[in-house]
């Protein structure tokens, strides 16, 4: 008899200071039965501590995906993206910029800093939920990611 094991959890780090947006992301993934493990941090300073496993995050898992807002206090998403992609030990983690900005300069700068995707947060709840599910399905189920076996 062949035993089937479930795939390891898909670890997602959400870096966003908007509690309402975080709630939508959490609800979208829970409603659609997607088995991601979500970790939420409110700003870029804490995001880098999580990613580098510093302080209270020394046992933090390495995320398979980062959902990154651009406009945050203390350290912006742009700064996080730049630091993350310049750090050889973190650079291979896919980063999806998920933000309210649709400004051409933000899009260009994010890709210049090696974002893997740039998505403007829809205003409509159902559309926002759909976007989150599509991102997770692509990165969690379709794409082959470093260090992740299914």
Automatic annotation (TrEMBL):
PROSITE patterns: RESPONSE_REGULATORY. InterPro entries: CheY-like_superfamily (IPR011006), Sig_transdc_resp-reg_receiver (IPR001789), TCS_response_regulator (IPR052893). Signal peptide: none annotated. The keyword Phosphoprotein applies. The modification 4-aspartylphosphate is found at residue 69. Pfam families: Response_reg. Keywords: Phosphoprotein. The keyword Phosphoprotein applies. Residues 11-136 form the Response regulatory domain. This is Response regulator. It comes from Cryptosporangium minutisporangium.
């Amino acid at each position: 008899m062949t035993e089937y094991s479930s795939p390891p959890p898909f670890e997602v780090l959400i870096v966003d200071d908007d509690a309402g947006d975080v709630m939508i992301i959490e609800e979208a993934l829970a409603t659609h039965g997607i088995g991601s493990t979500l970790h939420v941090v409110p700003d870029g300073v804490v995001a880098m501590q999580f990613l580098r496993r510093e302080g209270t995050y020394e046992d933090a898992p390495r995320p398979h995906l980062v959902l990154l807002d651009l406009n945050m206090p203390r350290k912006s998403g742009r700064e996080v993206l730049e630091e993350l992609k310049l750090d050889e030990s973190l650079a291979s983690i896919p980063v999806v910029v998920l933000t309210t900005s649709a400004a051409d300069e933000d899009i260009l700068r994010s890709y210049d800093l090696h974002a893997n995707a740039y998505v403007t947060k829809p205003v409509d709840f159902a559309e926002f939920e759909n976007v989150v599910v599509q991102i997770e399905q692509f990165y969690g189920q379709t794409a082959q990611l470093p260090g992740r076996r299914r």
